[in-house]
Amino acid sequence: MLYLIGLGLGDAEDITVKGLKLVRAAKRAYLEAYTSILTSQKKDLEEFYGRELILADRDLVEQSSDTILADATKEDVAFLVVGDPFGATTHTDLVLRAIERGIPYQVVHNASIMSAIGCCGLQLYNFGETVSFVFWTDTWRPSSYIDKIEANLQRGHHTLCLLDIKVKEQSVENMMKGRKVYEPPRYMTVSQAIEQLLEAISQRKAKGQKSSILSEETICVGLARIGSECQKIVCGKVSEMVDVDMGPPLHSLIIAGNVHYLEIEMLKYFAINQTTFTYDETKM
Amino acid sequence: MLYLIGLGLGDAEDITVKGLKLVRAAKRAYLEAYTSILTSQKKDLEEFYGRELILADRDLVEQSSDTILADATKEDVAFLVVGDPFGATTHTDLVLRAIERGIPYQVVHNASIMSAIGCCGLQLYNFGETVSFVFWTDTWRPSSYIDKIEANLQRGHHTLCLLDIKVKEQSVENMMKGRKVYEPPRYMTVSQAIEQLLEAISQRKAKGQKSSILSEETICVGLARIGSECQKIVCGKVSEMVDVDMGPPLHSLIIAGNVHYLEIEMLKYFAINQTTFTYDETKM
């Protein structure tokens, strides 16, 4: 049996009782370590679970899934994923390979950033499509996410922005020379995302593509380390958020659409500036 | 301290290790019992947690929250919610009352139906706004959810439909006579939701409001008891789903928008009829 086990979002203790039992009993347990992180390190998890974990990087999961699935028709293999196994990153591909090989599978769900963001007070059923922000390079600066955010805003919907994670990336030079030397991991901050957003808006204005709704005045919410004891939620206008220091990763960003009374009351609790939510409440 | 603790979606063992510790240590523990259900009963939860739970119905939570929050500045109170405390049903109101009274609070996240639905293979970031289906009465037959589903479909997005739950409802007669006699709980089935959908589409056609995208041919996914060992996922055209028996509650329904290759591969696994996903794959 292949068990896909969600670890939730905070630390080692955020695994479910069901998940913990299965991790402990499995023949092999892989820790997917390239799409998200916990505040706990691998060794903390191993200590808490009382067993060894095999680190599964992108190469192993995408190119050597046979290794993960070996003997899984006879033995139990646990595949551990931060958040939920079908949340922000989905492991459909691994499941399909298991199905092809006649390996039964079971999912142990857990908190995903896709739903845990409800803790900021914005209601999940008012969210539209989710977008992803990627790190820009000198030559690759995609900003198509703005169309999606604007389409959500036009319908009054909030937008969850998932921020880029670069783990085990090679520099162009190392890649060309075939050297398996990796850059330090990078996690996009709320402040970097806001900077990118502002630059994309101004570029579009310069090209005459007017950004009709999204502006420096738009309300947004920065979230960091959600589910951990050191989580941080900060809310304000785009222009106010550019200098906010949210601390260590992971960060996420929400662009708020129409905000209802109860949502405002909760956002106030996280506001940089209380007046943001008083002077134009009637317009929101 | 007020702890809002998610119980996840399956049975007693779907609580997190962190959540379980806090439930056991709390002075009082309330079980929110009117917006969702587990496959475990209250007594199973009490046995597993090793403590008594106080059932919190809508009246207690919405009208007597002072009782729940009593002494929570000095003592730990646990408020247990099926799924995530800010998932499909949000408990913002209780948190705001705690904040007003100077009571600190902490959230222990868990799986929510809002993200666990990813297990059917449809990717969460392709979902648009979530809609709610309510039980129709002879005189109240709202169908505004169709506009929202259509708006999602126009953008190629999937729609999660949360299906109605009626717990501790009074009949009109009992309500008028002030008798606290309650009807048996009702949980909308996938089949009932599809029937309602078909009737709403045909009523709109009769009024000349053409339903341009949503039709009997639209692909949808029925989900029941997600996260439990007896979960069931069935996928097919709207017309094929009307007679599907998904078994005991809770049920949810997804109306699929544009379906990508990996999504199709996964949906096939749950298909009533494999040919649904072969003859017009190129159009999807």
Name the poorly predicted regions of chain A.
none
CATH architecture name of the largest domain in chain A: 2-Layer Sandwich
**Which fold name corresponds to the CATH topology of the largest domain in chain A?**
Methyltransferase, Cobalt-precorrin-4 Transmethylase, Domain 2
Question: What's the SSE pattern of chain A?
Answer: EHEHEHHEHEHEHEEHEHEEHEH
Number of strands of chain A: 12
Q: How do the strands of the widest beta sheet of chain A line up side by side?
A: 3-2-4-1-5
Give a verbal description of the structure.
2 copies of one chain form a homodimer. The first copy, chain A, has 2 domains: about 110 residues, Cobalt-precorrin-4 Transmethylase, domain 1; about 170 residues, Tetrapyrrole methylase, C-terminal domain (Methyltransferase, Cobalt-precorrin-4 Transmethylase, Domain 2). Helix content of chain A is about 30%, strand content about 20%. Chain A contains 11 helices and 12 strands. A 5-stranded parallel β-sheet of chain A has the order 3-2-4-1-5, sandwiched between helices. Chain A has a 5-stranded mixed β-sheet with strand order 6-7-12-10-11. In chain A, strands 8-9 form a two-stranded antiparallel sheet. Chain A starts with a strand and ends in a 16-residue tail after the last helix. Chains A and B meet through helix 1, helix 5, helix 6 and helix 11 of A and helix 1, helix 5, helix 6 and helix 11 of B.
